[in-house]
Write a structure and sequence with these properties.
mainly alpha; 14 helices
């Protein structure tokens, strides 16, 4: 009965609209960063800024969970929840930082468009389920990558450093895809409405890692009078996006969730076309059409079944960790 109800929820239109909203928030965040780069603000490092964001996310998620009487996972399950934050946010950010200054922003977009391809290939193996609509999803993901390359041709690395940086970005995309599959599998083993403790623990692990990375780097002078404005965009845009991301883990397959790496660039391109008077070349229109069609299919295609959610080997561990009172 639970599985049938969960499948109906997954197949509904609101999760797809939530994915579109998440991609829209990512677009706004990236555009705000371009319009007012943090480096020009003379404030804290990006690592400490991320630490503040995830600390706020952890505080809100944990407070709501406590108010609702939800129990937090312990032991191995708590480590699993924390690893979600490391795999989705910390490790990809570290790999992207290694490539900063070597790989252009457009090349980064092209590389991260591989994330849905990795997720489609790995999802059946990491979620103990059949490759539902796997061939069609894989073909659509590859077509989306082709559309991205029509828009942003990938530069061939001209040095060992550039090649290593490009490989680091590919590893970051693979890390996100693997963690997304694991996070979806983990989220669906929790009872409905009890994913907040998982989100809080993932956020706490991310906040600690970013804080450690931030305090070990040289900092610019603090200007307390402009600190609130420097943190306003992350707290108003990225914070809701994080809650939406974890909510979607219970409602969308991992391959569908990673479509955000296609939708966000598409939205950014459409905003640029709307604001720029010059008409894009035919190649750009072809790329946008291919990208929009492929990403749209990934988002609105018939929903996949919940792969092995009722037979998930993590379910007994979760039941023991969250429901049984601690000894003594």
């Amino acid at each position: 009965m639970k599985l049938r109800g969960a499948t109906r929820t997954q197949a509904g239109l609101p999760p797809a609209l939530g994915l579109l909203l998440l991609s829209g928030l990512w677009t706004i965040s990236s555009l705000s960063s371009d319009l007012r780069p943090y480096a020009g603000g003379g404030m804290v490092s990006p690592s400490l800024r991320q630490a503040v964001l995830y600390a706020a996310f952890t505080a809100v998620a944990a407070s709501v969970a406590v108010a609702r009487g939800l129990k937090f996972p312990r032991g191995r399950l708590a480590l699993a929840c924390g690893s979600v934050g490391l795999g989705l946010f910390v490790l990809p950010s570290a790999l992207a930082s290694f490539a900063q200054g070597t790989v252009s922003v457009l090349d980064r977009v092209a590389v991260f468009s591989l994330t849905p391809v990795f997720a489609v290939v790995l999802q059946p193996h990491l979620q103990d389920g059949p490759p539902a609509r796997g061939k069609a999803a894989l073909a659509s993901s590859i077509c989306a990558v082709a559309g991205i390359l029509f828009l942003f041709p990938l530069d061939v690395p001209g040095s060992f450093r550039a090649g290593a940086a490009l490989c680091a970005l590919v590893a970051a995309a693979l890390c996100i895809a693997v963690t997304n599959c694991f996070a979806v599998k983990l989220a669906r083993t929790f009872a409905v409405g009890s994913i907040l403790p998982m989100a809080a623990q993932a956020g706490a692990a991310s906040a600690v890692c970013f804080a450690v990375a931030g305090v070990t780097k040289p900092q610019v002078a603090w200007r307390w009078n402009v600190l609130p404005s420097d943190l306003l965009a992350p707290l108003l845009i990225d914070l809701p996006a994080l809650f939406l991301l974890f909510w979607l883990m219970r409602h969308l397959a991992a391959s569908r969730m990673t479509a955000r790496f296609l939708l966000a660039p598409l939205f950014t391109i459409l905003v640029g076309v709307a604001l720029q008077p010059a008409s894009p070349p035919e190649r750009a229109w072809a790329g946008m059409a291919l990208l929009a069609g492929s990403a749209g299919w990934l988002v609105f295609a018939p929903a996949e079944p919940l792969e092995g959610s009722e037979l998930n080997p993590l379910r007994p561990l979760i039941a023991e960790s969250t429901r049984r009172p601690p000894p003594g």
